[in-house]
Amino acid sequence: MANIIQPLQHFTKFESLNLGNELIEKALLYKSNPALDKAKGAGKRIGCIFLNPSLRTRISTQLAAMNLGMEPIVLNMDKEGWALEMQDGAVMNRGTVEHIKDAAAVLGSYFDILAIRAFPSLTNKEEDTSDFVFSQFVKYSGVPVVSLESATRHPLQSLADQITIRENWSGKKKPKVVLTWGPHIKSIPHAVANSFAEWTIGMDHELTITHPAGYELDEQFTNGATIEYNQSKALEDADFVYVKNWSSFNDYGKIICTDASWMLTDKHLQHAENAKVMHCLPVRRNLELSDEILDGKRSLVQMQAKNRIFAAQAVISHLLEQL
Ligand SMILES: NCCC[C@H](NC(=O)CCC(=O)O)C(=O)O
Ligand SMILES: NC(=O)OP(=O)(O)O
Fold first, then answer.
1. CA 323 to each of CA 65, 71, 104, 316: distance values in angstroms, whole numbers, following the listed order
2. What average pLDDT does the segment 48-52 reach?
3. What residues are in contact with ligand 2 under a 6 Å CB criterion?
4. What CATH number is attached to the domain comprising 88?
5. Which residues pair with 76 in a beta bridge?
6. Which residues are in the Aspartate/ornithine carbamoyltransferase Asp/Orn-binding domain (predicted)?
7. Minimum CA distance residue for ligand 1 atom 16
8. Per the confidence metrics, is the pTM higher than 0.95?
9. Is 161 in the pocket of ligand 1 (CB under 6 A)?
10. Is ipTM strictly over 0.95?
């Protein structure tokens, strides 16, 4: 394949329009021929470390690595690893068994690339917004690190989402993309919403974000988007509607609205006839998003999930070129 345009040390966030386009094109090439670079990662290993549950990210990242001839090894660190100590200088005379600086350095010595999932606590805003846990792995492992969803971002999901938008848009104008908050019963992280906004704006689409008052996201991710508190107004003439719950960012981690009328149904899209609907999954059916939408023609959710393989393959391939 062609030489890389923009080098990348770690894959943790949106970097540039150029790199975004390069990764989307690479992913689409892999989608049409998954075995295109099947010898590229021969003799190399990727460690996929999960501190939280996962279906798509866990499997798609392994498939992506295998398509490149790499060997993936998964560690469910939350269940199978030792309890990790994160604080520098801690006297470890309580529950934690192993310091992150020791564990991350060991993992770095075992693998050529590390991939880490580390969700936020949703109770400690400062630690979460600085991506403290994820950053410790980056700091101490000494190898390229891929985010499998950190406290603040989910870039492999966002890349798969942008690939899906690219495949489903042939209009001449910029597509109108709407990110709409949907109800949920639990406190949910901001990472998917932050990252989707960051990538959608970065890829130069028109983004409108709609949510109840009090659900404003961290502005560093939404600068450049239109914020519209009236959901029906926001949805008018939408080309893509991304549904996602997140907890309050200002009143950190709190649920401040449970209004069921925010759940997206076909009726909400009466002024957006051609709108396609997206969700990262897992989705709480008939709470966040109705069955009629998820099982209907508008839904892109299965395509998004499939594209996770090729998003990961493009990213791992890019990193392999720099090893
Ligand atoms: N990785 C994709 C989404 C992960 C997470 N969802 C969740 O925690 C759902 C949990 C539940 O529905 O009980 C989120 O939205 O950030
Ligand atoms: N969309 C997504 O990241 O799914 P998992 O949490 O199942 O990996």
1. 15, 15, 19, 11
2. 98
3. 54-58, 149, 157, 280-282
4. 3.40.50.1370
5. 50
6. 192-318
7. 189
8. yes
9. no
10. yes
